[in-house]
Write a structure and sequence with these properties.
Elements (H helix, E strand, L loop, with lengths): L13 H13 L7 H26 L8 H10 L7 H17 L4 H4 L4 H26 L10
Helix pairs in contact: 1-3, 2-3, 2-6, 3-4, 3-6, 4-6
Length: about 150
C-alpha cells in the first residue's frame, strides 16, 4: 500500500502515476465529501509515516517506490474544490510541479528522517497547491466564500 496502488514500482514517473491513481479514486462518486476525503487523508498520512520508515530502510532516502505521499498530496490539493475535470487537471499539474520543485519549507522537511520526511514535503507542496487553486478560482469568480456574518 505504501507504493500507492503499486504505482511506486513503475520504472519512470512513479510519483506522477501515484498522483494519477489518487485522482482516479477522487472521481469515485462522493469521495470529495469532506468527511470521506479528510478521513482518507488523515489515515493514509499516518500510515505513510509508519510505512515510510520501512520503505526508507529497504530502498533508501525518499524512495520512488513509496508513492503514498503523492496520493495524500493529490487529495489535499483537491480539497473543497469544484469536482470537474478542468479544475482537477489544473490542481494535478500545479501539484506535480510543486512536488518536483519543492518550494520552502518543503525542501527542508524532506530531510526529516523516515516516513516524516517522505510525507511532510508533499503535504506542504499540496497545501501550496490548495491555496493557489482556491485563490485562483476565487479570482475567476468560480469560488465564493460565504462569511457567517
Amino acid at each position: 500500500m505504501g507504493s500507492g496502488f503499486y504505482t511506486g514500482y513503475i520504472s519512470f514517473a512513479s510519483g506522477t502515476f501515484g498522483s494519477l491513481a489518487a485522482l482516479l479514486i477522487y472521481y469515485i462518486p462522493n469521495f470529495e465529501n469532506p468527511s470521506i476525503i479528510c478521513t482518507a487523508i488523515v489515515l493514509l498520512f499516518l500510515y505513510g509515516v509508519i510505512i515510510g520508515d520501512d520503505f526508507e530502510k529497504r530502498y533508501g532516502k525518499d524512495p520512488s517506490e513509496c508513492t503514498i505521499d503523492e496520493v495524500v498530496g493529490t487529495w489535499i490539493s483537491l480539497l473543497f474544490l469544484p469536482k470537474n475535470l478542468i479544475v482537477s487537471l489544473a490542481a494535478f499539474l500545479i501539484w506535480r510541479l510543486l512536488d518536483i520543485v519543492k518550494p520552502y519549507p518543503a525542501n527542508k522537511l524532506e530531510s526529516l528522517k523516515g516516513g516524516w520526511g517522505i510525507m511532510m514535503d508533499d503535504v506542504v507542496s499540496a497545501f501550496y497547491t490548495l491555496i493557489i487553486m482556491h485563490v485562483s478560482l476565487m479570482g475567476l469568480g468560480y469560488l465564493k466564500i460565504k462569511l457567517p456574518f
